[in-house]
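Recall from the previous chapter that SMILES is a line notation for molecules. Here it describes NAP.
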Amino acid sequence: MNRPYIFCHMMTSLDGKIMGPYMETPEGNAAGDVFYHISFGKNPYYKHQGWLSGRITTDDNFTFYEKPELNEQAPLVPEGDYIAKQAGMYYVSVDPSGRLGWKNSTLTYVDTTAHVIEVLTEKASNAYKDFLRRLGISYIIAGAEALDYELAMSKLKNLFGIETLMLGGGGILNWSFIQAGMCDEVSLVIAAAADGSLDTPSLFGVRDGLSCNKAVGFELQSAEVKDGGSVWLRYKVSQQSV
Ligand SMILES: NC(=O)c1ccc[n+]([C@@H]2O[C@H](COP(=O)([O-])OP(=O)(O)OC[C@H]3O[C@@H](n4cnc5c(N)ncnc54)[C@H](OP(=O)(O)O)[C@@H]3O)[C@@H](O)[C@H]2O)c1
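With both inputs in hand, we obtain:
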């Protein structure tokens, strides 16, 4: 397999929501700790070298909808990918058009530090690639207009040595990867909490042009009761559709 092993690791409310006030309840906080320690911290279950996030997840958590500081007069950057450095952990950001206003090439999530890799398509401008180079942020180019999943995943493995990759949301990214056959396992921590919101995104979400509502089956691998009444479910993606 010329790509990393890909597991989708997420926390949800009882009704499958991936954000919202339920996260601030004692049960939500307990599930948040369970979620973190399965994949990060000192003794994680998964030993991955990077995690992948959609552009909205990155804007909500790390770049806060800031505009990138572009120099439209920048000289043409060299063609192809840019490997700024190798690292023990990578934050891989799917940002096809090059919109994210990074300030730094490194981020810290709780107590995990990671080097940023941007996944661009050929839609991203020269000025945006110049912006990333000035910050020392690595980037790969995968696809003309739409993301070329196979190319992106093979580059992560071959250029950065990522053997295991966490698919880390949001719902739009998760579902597009599952439908593209690019997810091997789903690891789900369900909090014993809910807030009933109709507006917050769910674990999986269709986005026209990226995915559709073709059904997928999952095969249960394990189920464990965890702190705060949360449960940890692991499923193989079986790719059976109806
Ligand atoms: N509970 C949890 O465990 C958890 C984990 C992660 C995130 N979250 C939350 O989830 C929320 C965001 O989720 P979301 O579903 O709305 O958005 P998302 O998946 O984070 O981002 C969607 C965007 O990412 C890009 N993208 C995703 N898949 C793509 C593909 N296959 N090809 C090309 N581009 C692709 C597109 O960017 P462009 O629009 O630029 O084209 C798309 O609009 C955030 O609030 C975050 O905090 C929760």
